[in-house]
Records
---
Amino acid sequence: MKFIKSLLAIGCAVAVMASYSAMAASCCVKAKAKGKDCDHKCCVDARKAKKTCDSCQKEATCCDKAIAKGEDCAHKCCIDAAKEKKVCEKCNPDKKKE
Ligand SMILES: [Zn+2]
Ligand SMILES: [Zn+2]
Ligand SMILES: [Zn+2]
Ligand SMILES: [Zn+2]
């Protein structure tokens, strides 16, 4: 029984981590930081329609909105982050629960 309990504990920990990463910068912003376009089908379709992806960019940041328009975000902080191939953490915060 101990074995099953520890399996359950691991399962819970993974679920919590997964929900945290869902709150972070969107897949599209991360892909953009690497100089790529996000290749999720839902995001590709959203970009074609010049929209943000409803499933991955629910809390669209300035950078998500710029990607939707096919542009680079014009914020200085975001441009600087992009130069270093990073995601602007000021505008795309990892919203961890305090
Ligand atoms: Zn995406
Ligand atoms: Zn998507
Ligand atoms: Zn931005
Ligand atoms: Zn920024």
---
Amino acid sequence: MKSNFAIAAHCVVSIACLLTGAIAASAAVDCPGNPGAVGTSRTISVDPTEHRRIGTMQYPETLPLRDHEVVLTFDDGPLPAHTNGILDILAGQCVKATFFMVGRMAKEFPETARRVYDEGHSIGTHSENHPFRFGEMAPEHIKSEIDDGIAHVSEALGDPAKVAPFFRIPGLRRAEGVEAYLAELGIMVWSADFPADDWRHISSTQVIRLALSRLEAKGKGILLLHDIQERTLVALPVILRELKARGYRIVHVVPASQAMPKTPTEQQQWFFNVSPDRTPMSKLSVQSVWLAQAPLRSRPSEVVLKTKSSAVFDIDSANDIDPKGVPKRSSDLSASKTMGHTQLPGSWPITASGMTPGSVE
Ligand SMILES: [Zn+2]
């Protein structure tokens, strides 16, 4: 029987051992202290002047993601009490995300804003005060909200160059005047591909189920979350663990620069392509998720999604989640079941304390 020393000596010269060691070292370098981390699979660099509006919740184009790729976004912060926890979780998993900050929040909590930047995340803006009914405001008010938000986030970071030319419209209240002004500034409007309704008064378990079921329905995309919500902080570790278990990969998005020229893409990659087995649900998602392109006056305050697909999670059933909070696959989702109730996110003014009114609209 070989001694431990002999086994070790054998290992030193074994190609297999060397390879194993190389892989382990690589993983350790990729995410120190957590070789099993979710990680960030790739970074894509985008030119905001070429693709001005993205996110299938509202626009024809979205990010040029491959199947099973996910981009994480967090709105409405920074708010130290929750943003720091979100940052801890992302750092522990070596996951990079995009934060859409509110100017007033960054002004009040500049250290947290700087931490987001220092940890390698992208930072876009989300107006100065997150006003209610953004798209319906007077043009001058819209401009000052956009300008002041950028100014205060820049001030908090200490350098305007640290702010990405990315903007998410508060409450996704898009309007031609808003989009035209942002285009004039060379800023890319980010809608999203699916939300998790974490701004609503729902449980963190429901946030997990919504995030995963909507992702499974689409197969890839931009997930809209909020870093000012306790339920999001609680849900995030489970969401990340499930993403990894289901073979999803995290993609980080940065604005094109001299240091990082735009990632080469074909125009068709910017349109949402679905694989055939996802078609029934995906079609439904794209056509009904938000009705956000409909005129505001005719838009229902609540949109109910229904599906006939069996390849999704039944998120209305009380039986589809195990005690650990992990959703189970539903094999029999009836046509009459509701997939979820959605409202436009963040449709209220937020305060620097992060508190939001109990109801929306
Ligand atoms: Zn918001």
